[in-house]
Amino acid sequence: MIEIGGFQKLTLIDFPGKIASAVFLQGCNLNCVYCHNRHLIPLKRGNLNVQDILEYLEGARAFLDGVVISGGEPTIQKGLLLFAQELKRIGYAVKIDTNGTNPEMLELLLSKGLVDFVAMDVKAPLTPEKYSGVCGHRVDEEFMEKIRKSVEIVTSYGVAHEFRTTVVEELLTPADIIEIARSLPPQSSYVLQQFVPPEMCAVADKLTKPADRELLIKLKEECEKILTNVRVRLYV
Question: Cα(39)–Cα(113) distance, rounded to whole angstroms?
């Protein structure tokens, strides 16, 4: 069905308003320099059994409300639709974390009512040059059009959602963050996530410090001049 590379039985912070489990799908089509889940990037077989996880979730329905489907990048998995259908059959609310590179799968999930919350990363201003500097390989205008389409899809379906940017001071300037905010629908939720260096950072010799808390607060205030719902997510 799908390839699963990790499973968290309980999370109280990843699905707003829900007590949830988190399923981490194997494989990603990007290679972001600050990725915390680098072991999930390779497109290979997952190390966890899908049926075992579904059986656990069946038994845990009495105390769990939702399931987060994260990664890696979930939308590149061909079995994602069937997996989401199984979660819905059990009775779960479903949240998906996505980089927005597969708008077709995203729209299919939303059109069938299989997703209750979408968290979409907007990694940089919506230009090939800026995105290439963050996501680990060169991208073109066709790639960027997919990102723009996903933003449109998420907002047009009216599903609960947030767009989020990991603020890495060495990669994104304050002007970049403002440009991202201007590219989002005014009523959408926008989250500025504090970068914290992962243990296996692709360029750990360059990205060594967390994003400054005061900078994040100032960026939030500037973004609030553009968007109605802006939050900061701090980790340290």
Answer: 31
Burial (CB count within 10 angstroms: exposed 0-12, middle 13-18, buried 19+), residue 85: middle
Q: pLDDT of 38-72, one tens digit each?
A: 899 998 988 899 999 999 999 999 999 999 999 99
The Cα 123–Cα 130 span in angstroms is 9
pTM for this predicted structure: 0.95
Tokens 């290439």 belong to which residue? 132
198, burial (CB in 10 Å: exposed 0-12, middle 13-18, buried 19+): middle
Q: Which two tokens stand for residue 2?
A: 């799908």
Q: Rounded CA gap, 124 and 103, in Å?
A: 18
| Pairwise CA distance, residues 148 & 25, whole Å | 24
Radius of gyration of the chain (CA): 17
Average pLDDT (199-214) is 69
pLDDT band per the 50, 70, 90 thresholds, residue 199: low
**What interhelical angle do 50-59 and 80-90 show, nearest 10?**
20
